[in-house]
Structures are given as structure tokens and as C-alpha cells.
Amino acid sequence: MIFKKIRNAFVGTATPYYVEDGNFYLESNNVKDGSINRKTEIFINNDFYEKQKDKWLHTDDIVMVQSGHVGHTAVIPEELNNTAAHAVIMFQGYQQQTDPQFLNFQFQTGKAKKELSSITTGNTIKHILASEMKKFKVSVPQYEEQNKVGDFFKELDNAIALHQLRESKLTKLKKAYIQKLFPITENESPVIRFKEFNYNWDLCKLQEISNITMGQSPKGETYTNNPEEHILIQGNADMKNRKVVPRVWTSQVTKSANPGDIILSVRAPVGEVGITDYEVVLGRGVASLTGNEFLFQSLLRMKETGYWTKYSTGSTFESINSADLKNAEIYQPHMDEQIQIGELLETFDNLIGLQADKVNKLKDLKKGYLQKSFL
Fold it and tell me: What pTM does this model have?
């Protein structure tokens, strides 16, 4: 046995003890992909915190998510020493010299995930028992090797976190610019403008500035995996990072779009957009619009600001029709200003995409090394 204690954290209802300013209460949603995140925080009052003293977490303890996204683990850092917790399994009291990060990363391997899945119960909500984890077997080499492996993967995680942070900062910066580059009302100028422009913006309907084609699904028997046929775009699943990504093909052409056209989803989730580099067939879940980068960014903004929700409020299935799309209103400046705004926001998208690619490559690298570094 590596640990003296493998047990549940607090089990029961803790909501009556929640306070706005108190002791941080670690919950399962704070544990993901091998680390602690505090994007959401719950705090508990002093009385309840002190009552949990016999179950406080300490530096280098390991916690595992017990319900929901079961099996995700993290090591308790020094700044969370003496933290109370809820809905996690706690691994405490090392009985032999062990690198906690080594075990933490071992739980992330495909082999460990498969074994954890075999002892997971529940259909709708997955659950794992502390009693099962007491019987769980791990491979442990000499401490020096554990330490080297743990340090290596920790450096990889730090690199991933760095690029994720850069991606997040760029995304927030772009959102801030979008808020200030577009007017809020017809009689209002944007907060930020390129110095050479002072014209008024016009309020236009989409059908006045773009050729719009609503999709029509081909017959089901014409669908194929043959990339020699026509690319079929059905919805959000066929778009990623601004672009159309071929996924399904069809031998029947119903409605079509050309390279450079904007593709917009008209069914849940309404308003997702991408640009196609190919001639594509439009299924009924999408529409195409002709337009420049400015129009593309304007449509992104409409999605982010919840423009389309007014058409689907109260509906069982979120969707918009041809009239909704054609009569949608956007603000538009002169073409020269459109070009500059579009280029600026496209630069942000390219930088964000670059960081996202780096994150994905590092995650793939980590996944490969995890498979090779553990028995």
C-alpha cells in the first residue's frame, strides 16, 4: 500500500454553509486533466470548515473526481494545504517515498483510464468508489525515476498552460476590441476608429448586402464517405476554427456555396460561422452568405452577443428561417473601414488559432509520451 488512507471527502449537503467570503472548498469541478483549476470557487464558513478538520487535504495529497468526470486527478499544491473538500476521493499519507506527480500522470494514461472505466458504475452519472481505488494497482519504479518522469510531464503541463493562457488573453483582447470597434446604436459612433475615418455607419439588412442561400438536405441514400464526391455541410459539426472541415460527402447537389463564402448554422446552435475553402453542398442546417471578412466578423459578433436568441426563445428546437436571416440587421461602415476592421480582427483570429494549434500539438505530444513512459 502506497497510502495510509484512501477515503471520501465530505459526503452530504454543504450548500447551507456556503458564504461569499470564507474558506475555499475544493469540489470535483476544480479537478480536471491532472491539475487544480479555480475558475469557479465555492467558499464555506469557519464552523463547517473546522468540523471537516479530520478530512482536510494536505500538500502532495492526491484527489480524484468521484462522480461525473470520474478518474480525473490532481496533486494538492502547498497553497491549498489544509483545504476542505467535497465529492472527491482523497489519497493521503504516503507509506513509502513516492513522487505524487508520477502517480498523478499515471492516472492520465490510456491504460489507467481503461482500468478506471472498468470499475466505474452508473449510466447517467458515472461514479467510482473509494473502496475500489484501495484495490487499484499502479506501477512504481525507484523514486529517482519517478521524480524524473513527474518533472518531465509537469514541464509539459506548464507549457500547455502557458499557451492556453496566451490563447485566453488574445481571445479576451479581441472581444474587448469588438465591443469598441462597432457602434451600439444607429446614432452612435464606435469608441475606437481608425483615424482616417469619420463617416457614419449604416444600418442594413443582411439581404441588402449579401446573397443568401438557404440549405436543402440531399436524400439520405446519397450520403457517402467518398471524398471524390461533393462535400456536404450540415451544421456546426462541419466547422472548426473559422473554417469548413470536410466530414461527410454526397452524390446529390441540392443547394451549393462557393470557395470564400460564409457558412452560417441556422439550427442549434444557431449563428455559428465558418468560411469554406471548397465548393460545398448546403444541408438544411446551414445557409451561405457572400461577403468579406468584415461581414464574417460581424456575424461572429452577433452570435457572441446573443442576437439570434430572440428568434428561438420559447422554442423546443432552436432555429432561424430564411426571413429571420435575410431581415437581420447589422451596422456597416464604408468599404475602406470594413477592410481595416476585418484585417485587424482576422489577425487576432490567426494568433488565437496559432496558440490553439500549439496547445493541441503539446497535448498530442503528452499523450504519446504517457503511453511510452508507464508500464
Answer: 0.85
